[in-house]
Write a structure and sequence with these properties.
D-Maltodextrin-Binding Protein, domain 2, seven-stranded mixed beta sheet, alpha/beta, 162 residues, single chain
Length: 162
């Protein structure tokens, strides 16, 4: 709609007049705060998630991935046996809930980078990945400011651990 010069999107755009460049794939893992893990213990198996407080998304949210609540289904528990104690439609709010020691949640690794108090649990358990794209309109192809910003973003991502 030309309301912005660029966008960073979590889905590949379908509009033919947009230029896109794949930036990176975000990976999700299960994290908990050290205070929660001291209080409730660290799950050793996926089945032990049944005995933990999980934080997830509401069922009616429009997520960028098809199974955003994959943690509730991990290990194929009996239908309805694993529910979230808290449902929030914002990944930052979920991060803050985990940071507050409320429970375990699936978070993108980039959000947890540098945190000393959030611990990755069940390291073998990995959720879906989300691809991100740098997108801009075809008519801005020769824009110097777009190319400078794009190159900056690409360089920063290549310097990161992800």
């Amino acid at each position: 709609m030309r309301e912005a010069d660029i966008a960073i999107r979590m889905t590949s755009p379908r509009q033919p007049d947009l230029i896109q460049r794949h930036l990176m794939a975000f990976k999700f893992h299960v994290y908990g705060h050290v205070s929660y893990l001291k209080r409730r213990g660290v799950p050793k198996t996926v089945q032990e998630l049944n005995d933990h407080d999980l934080i997830g998304y509401p069922p009616d949210v429009r997520p960028p991935i098809s199974n955003i609540n994959w943690l509730l289904d991990a290990g194929d528990p009996p239908q309805g046996s694993r529910t979230a104690i808290m449902r929030v439609n914002n990944v930052y709010a979920i991060y803050r809930a985990v940071e507050s020691g409320l429970g375990l949640a699936a978070l993108p690794d980039y959000m947890v980078e540098g945190s000393r108090d959030l611990v990755r649990v069940l390291p073998e358990l990995c959720g879906p990945k989300i691809d991100s794209y740098f997108v801009y309109a075809e008519e801005l192809r020769s824009s110097k400011r777009i190319s400078v910003f794009r190159d900056f973003i690409v360089r920063k991502i290549s310097e990161s651990a992800f």
